[in-house]
Please model this.
Amino acid sequence: MIHIVVVDDEADTHLLYKLKFKKFFADLGGVKLVSFLSALDCLNYLRVADTKVDLIMSDINMPEMDGFELLQEVRKSNTTLPFYVVSAYESSEFRNRAEQLGAQRFLSKPVDFHALGEALKSDLNLSL
Model:
């Protein structure tokens, strides 16, 4: 089972990922999708998670702590965990910053789920 954490302050986004990922991972033993509305809640979860997290997907613009700050905090304790930055704002500045901070991918909203599936296959070494 693949364990993915989604962080986005828009609740609708969580449902969309749940529906898309459930279908995508059906042949791989399913997906454990854990969603948070804030980066701080995500960090608290990562501290106590009882299973290995395979991927974090985080929006950039969120209250309290943005996705870039979350990425920096995650990288302090885990330099190899795949981390995707997702943003409604396609800009070379955001893309470059995500790359410099160690994100594997920068995805623009609305997310192209076909392209996301290909990225997941590659980054998580999935064979479908």
About this structure: The chain has one domain: 2-123.
